[in-house]
Amino acid sequence: MVVVMESHATEAQIESVIARLKELGFSTHRSTGVTRTVIGAIGDKTGLDERDLQVMDGVHEVVRISEPYKLVSRTFRSESTVIKIKGVEIGGEKVVVMAGPCSVESRDQIMAIAECVSKAGATVLRGGAFKPRSSPYSFQGMGEEGLRLLREAADRFGMLVVTEVMDRSQIPLITEYTDIFQTGARNMQNFNLLRDLGKARKPVFLKRGMAATIEEWLMAAEYVMSEGNHQVMLCERGIRTFETYTRNTLDISAIPVVHKLSHLPVIADPSHGTGIRDKVLPMARAAVAAGADGVMIEVHNDPPHALSDGAQALLPEQFEELMRELRIIVPALNRTI
Amino acid sequence: MVVVMESHATEAQIESVIARLKELGFSTHRSTGVTRTVIGAIGDKTGLDERDLQVMDGVHEVVRISEPYKLVSRTFRSESTVIKIKGVEIGGEKVVVMAGPCSVESRDQIMAIAECVSKAGATVLRGGAFKPRSSPYSFQGMGEEGLRLLREAADRFGMLVVTEVMDRSQIPLITEYTDIFQTGARNMQNFNLLRDLGKARKPVFLKRGMAATIEEWLMAAEYVMSEGNHQVMLCERGIRTFETYTRNTLDISAIPVVHKLSHLPVIADPSHGTGIRDKVLPMARAAVAAGADGVMIEVHNDPPHALSDGAQALLPEQFEELMRELRIIVPALNRTI
Amino acid sequence: MVVVMESHATEAQIESVIARLKELGFSTHRSTGVTRTVIGAIGDKTGLDERDLQVMDGVHEVVRISEPYKLVSRTFRSESTVIKIKGVEIGGEKVVVMAGPCSVESRDQIMAIAECVSKAGATVLRGGAFKPRSSPYSFQGMGEEGLRLLREAADRFGMLVVTEVMDRSQIPLITEYTDIFQTGARNMQNFNLLRDLGKARKPVFLKRGMAATIEEWLMAAEYVMSEGNHQVMLCERGIRTFETYTRNTLDISAIPVVHKLSHLPVIADPSHGTGIRDKVLPMARAAVAAGADGVMIEVHNDPPHALSDGAQALLPEQFEELMRELRIIVPALNRTI
Amino acid sequence: MVVVMESHATEAQIESVIARLKELGFSTHRSTGVTRTVIGAIGDKTGLDERDLQVMDGVHEVVRISEPYKLVSRTFRSESTVIKIKGVEIGGEKVVVMAGPCSVESRDQIMAIAECVSKAGATVLRGGAFKPRSSPYSFQGMGEEGLRLLREAADRFGMLVVTEVMDRSQIPLITEYTDIFQTGARNMQNFNLLRDLGKARKPVFLKRGMAATIEEWLMAAEYVMSEGNHQVMLCERGIRTFETYTRNTLDISAIPVVHKLSHLPVIADPSHGTGIRDKVLPMARAAVAAGADGVMIEVHNDPPHALSDGAQALLPEQFEELMRELRIIVPALNRTI
Prior knowledge:
Number of helices of chain A: 11
Largest interface: A-B, 51 and 51 residues
CATH topology of the largest domain in chain A: TIM Barrel
CATH class of the largest domain in chain A: Alpha Beta
CATH architecture of the largest domain in chain A: Alpha-Beta Barrel
Oligomer: homotetramer
Order of helices and strands of chain A: EHEEHEEEEHEHEHEHEHEHEHHEH
Shape of chain A: elongated
Radius of gyration of chain A: 23 Å
Helix content of chain A: 25-40%
CATH superfamily of the largest domain in chain A: Aldolase class I
């Protein structure tokens, strides 16, 4: 950390800052520039709030020079994490495709969709049983019956299951059915939930909050990892911008940025990232071209009658077309699909 | 709802949209303009996702013409809600001042602060016992012991208690100690929590999410009210903007906007809204001048050694100065304090 | 346009709105719903400010149902515009690559770079002679000498020239040297400049403003086209978001969105869109995979000593690598490069 | 400036950075922490692009420790600037009120409005003669005739004139009529215009760009001042946020922030800052309560028939009411009006 003093700071103010830094456990180094005194503070104080120094008299600015996270960082672990679940590798050479409906709606529906996406090349089946909806008057999911159907469909077609956990109280139930816990964008900073998932034994699929910086997203992963669960994959699902034509703006550049800062795998969700069916194909291609380790795609056999998010679901034949296009693109990244 | 067709939409496409609207329970009205056909849809379908129509062939745009909320709206209830708790009225003629430390840290601390803010005119004591922190390595609150101390201090000085509930599992415990449940910005769309607070018997102090629109904030209040608890007050606590000098940008204009759209009281939190002590006074004055029904102010007797958010806490004498200034301002709004 | 009345609007208020709409030249249609009266207004009033109706007594909301632009719209012209300049087609089947340094710095520099990018497959040479810089103390460009050198280099290697015009007063000078006028993000709403470019005889390369919506960007193109110049290409160059790791966030989803709304070609600029060299390759691949009609790439033979934006310039060998990767990707879109 | 190396940076990489810093004219100081080497760079290099160092091998982060501006800073000049024009002081003890129509529309209109606002206490008359409009099909202003009428009305009632200059070519004409040059939000980074205003002899009223950070806004003022014109006042007029209910979000907190960073006066424009008449009063009160040195208010004698922005214009009686309210508030800040 570096504390930059005002150009007119008094000697007493400078000494007061140095004393405070020592009280906080830092060793300090003072250097005097052309116009300002700068105090370097050496020590490891992850929980410190820099503003406590910022408000001291004579202080111009406090600059943190290390990230607030540790376990998620490439500094901590330089090789990329590959999460292995029943033969599927996430974060490896192969681009992973996760697909399925927004919500599980019936046995017929989930069976039909699982068969189609599995044949086309998806290895993970997605589907919601508990749905966070912005209106209290909207469909809220099938609950446990949805979980059971999702598991049955995945098993029938040799797929993994990923499904959302909305609340820490749901962990014991969902753990019986799923292979991967998904957390939603609105829960990215539900710290109690993150902590409890850190004590769970299954991988976590952590969606980025819609207004979160990449650092905040990595801090959320740090919460999970700090409790012992290192099997975290990060999902870019679109951020809020001024643009209203699309529901969200899929932040493709987050993919190479996270790959540089962290060893964790990154998946893109162009369905939520755009909210509109005909934008899903171009954005899925873009995500893979930018280096995503996988994509999560909503597919529905009858979108006009879907109980949630039908407008962003691909039709089965569009999903097959997407798989064909992605197979052309991946060699540019020395990957397979 | 109005469905605007493309200028080149075919008759078959128009009829298909009309058929779909009828299937959804709307009555329809078709009108043909200079360049486009427009279909008006009459009926009450709060849970509908407009995108389901938007993706139909030939549709140019779908425009919702009513708000997605009901109970929070001035259309539903035209007179302003006044919440009465043990003789304190929130939303009435008097501007309510809530004050206290970020976290309860010790008996001495909370007693000293409660005494000071009570003498200066605050009627509600704030203080956190469970703290949502962006780093897993930061102070997380005193837990139940903090709640006990907070209650004791409030009772000693004849104040109400407001404190944060982070998780639905904490409701039974916190309900024993608090007068008002506070929900944090990061939990604004924790729908399970909102629903359970809707079943609780005490008022809810609902902070706006840091990237939430006003409509989303009102929808969160709708979640609480739809379960039967109509005692909701809304708290503007700063939104995220591109500006990094302040921690957040206190959205003062949300105050008159919410007052127009809803009958619920609006409180401003300039402490979190700015994150910097010397910005709290001007922004508290501004909030009251804009018509806020109250302010929530962080005060600490020893900010440099506060365990959380010391940088934004007022010193006792600054709080007294603020009260003096607010007393000058409120007559401009025909209010008292 | 649709005017939605408050549920408690009086008959007099409704009639007053209808009278005002007629005064403004609209024909009207009144329909009465369950809770509200809705007034449809038919007529073409592009310059109208909807807020004039919004503030009338009893009005709940005013909804525009047509875009404010005409000439840029696919409704106006359904087939995609292909701009042809000396044998190069922009917006056609072939993906166009524009490359060169941020600033022209010397004859040797521009010659070396032009040779390298031309050999690798670029057909348009970029380079700045007048530089808009956020600090008045930074390098401001070589001026006319830079234009002369840029033209010479382009001619030597059979390339087109694209260069920025900062001010309407520069148009006569720059028109002597360039094939395409580039306008900068900060000038997207410099309406006098746009108008004068609309009277010029050469194509315009219109960068999106860093906080502009797609609609505002299209309105800027409308300014140019409304003066008679229909040769406009749109350049996505990154928008401002809360993320600070990258300089801007390249909005890849704008590419398919603009292609749906408008017939104009769309180019992506991943160099400004990220601001960091090692993010340019993945984002250029993503842009092309999403359907961009071209990319603009900054390349420098000695980036550490570049006078501007060296940090985002590709090295010649990186540019060659990018071209190899793009050649793998384009068949997925049935295009060539 | 501080260059933070990666924890695994090699000695050669560290030395290479030090060599580069020396080449750039800095003296350096190396310090070795627990996990990282940090290099302090001492020297004054205002025009440097930190990214040039950021992309060097082994560099983790580059941190600027001084502002990029000088002349606008309180470090450069600690006492507040008071701009004196014909007996009116801007930035002094008295809060200045600027008022008038959006556009000058006729002699009768401007005379009537000038009389009303002058009687109520305004000392500066605003009015546009050249209007930047987002649609090419909207009213674009009366041009020189508008300037002439504005001057005549101001002289008649003993007021100053402030009016917008859209383009550097308009400076000679407008200088004949105005007392203060206003620059619009969309021109905040029109660097050629700023530079030319820096050579003009009259004060500049510099509106903040709608997505500009405070630092960028101050850099725009630095452009003007670096050419010799130190009479700059800053106008907060609303920033773009996700909220769509108001046209912009007036950033009240910018007022105390700018007062801390700079010695220049700050004016608020709640008319453009909200875009809706009934939000102007509360936001004007808030701006003054937060410490603004003045407010600019749009007033119209017949808003429904205004040629631009009628929806945000106050009626004469509302303006008088606002003046009454502000007179109650200003003593809380030890000011007069």
